[in-house]
């Protein structure tokens, strides 16, 4: 008899679309930064303010940077909500394997030191919940690469606040140096977003497969809990 555990896909789509939108806007912001970087390498273009290509690309760059920041917050929120919905499924499939209280789904992203490993622990537990009972193994090379990409991207601006450096730049060389750092950071964010989408759908498929083969007692537990 097949269990009745259901894996909701709607939240996975919300999180995936938010991550994809963030990645696309980050690509656009990176291209604008690259264009500005190349313009700064040449002679300054004389002419009216409204017709200056450097002013135009700077406007696009600042607008895209604002959108990127907003979409990053939306993507983090949607990803956290998706983790919470997947935690509901994992609690039915393998309750004893979920090591952290669900409150850490929020606090784990913002508390110093904890943010380095707690979100990864949730994902590891979900991954294990999608496996057969024997053997269940937490972690996978894909998850390790994903989490390292997230940590590197998140800290790409932490060691050197390049946005402030760009605003304070008084020479072309200083501005170009800041733009190089921004372009590198954007590339890291894009990699992290793409890997997040891959991990998201891998987990959805694994948990769906585990739920579809859940034994009858799991389905009974699910109905009792609800």
N-to-C CA distance: 19 Å
What is the overall silhouette? Answer: elongated
Q: Treating each run of at least 4 consecutive H or I residues as one helix, how many helices?
A: 8
Q: How many beta strands in the DSSP annotation?
A: 0
Let me know the average pLDDT: 82
Your description of this structure?
The structure is a single chain. The chain starts with 9 loop residues before the first helix and ends with a helix. The model is unreliable at 216-226 (pLDDT under 50). The chain is mostly helical and 226 residues long. The protein is built from eight helices and no strands. The chain is 72% helix and 0% strand.
In short:
This protein has 226 residues and is mainly alpha-helical. It is 72% helix and 0% strand.
Question: What's the topology here?
Answer:
Layout (H helix, E strand, L loop, with lengths): L9 H32 L11 H42 L9 H4 L10 H12 L11 H14 L7 H7 L3 H41 L3 H10 L1
Helix pairs in contact: 1-2, 1-7, 2-4, 2-7, 4-7, 5-7, 6-7
List keywords for this structure.
8 helices; mainly alpha; 226 residues; elongated; disordered C terminus
């Amino acid at each position: 008899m097949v269990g009745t555990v259901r894996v909701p896909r709607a939240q996975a789509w919300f999180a995936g679309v938010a991550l994809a939108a963030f990645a696309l806007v980050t690509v656009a912001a990176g291209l604008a930064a690259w264009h500005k970087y190349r313009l700064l390498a040449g002679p300054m273009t004389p002419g009216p303010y409204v017709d200056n290509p450097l002013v135009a690309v700077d406007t696009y760059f600042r607008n895209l940077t604002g959108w990127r920041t907003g979409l990053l917050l939306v993507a983090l929120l949607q990803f956290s909500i998706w983790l919470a919905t997947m935690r509901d499924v994992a609690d039915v499939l393998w309750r004893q394997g979920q090591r952290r209280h669900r409150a850490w789904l929020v606090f784990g992203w913002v508390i110093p030191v904890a943010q380095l490993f707690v979100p990864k622990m949730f994902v590891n537990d979900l991954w294990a919940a999608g496996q057969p009972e024997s053997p269940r193994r937490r972690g996978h090379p894909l998850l390790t690469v994903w989490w390292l990409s997230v940590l590197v991207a998140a800290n790409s601006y932490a060691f050197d606040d390049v946005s402030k450096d760009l605003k304070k730049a008084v020479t072309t060389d200083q501005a170009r140096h800041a733009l190089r750092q921004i372009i590198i950071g954007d590339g890291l964010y894009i990699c992290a977003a793409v890997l997040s989408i891959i991990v998201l759908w891998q987990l959805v498929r694994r948990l769906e497969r585990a739920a579809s083969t859940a034994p009858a007692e799991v389905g009974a537990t699910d109905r009792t809990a609800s």
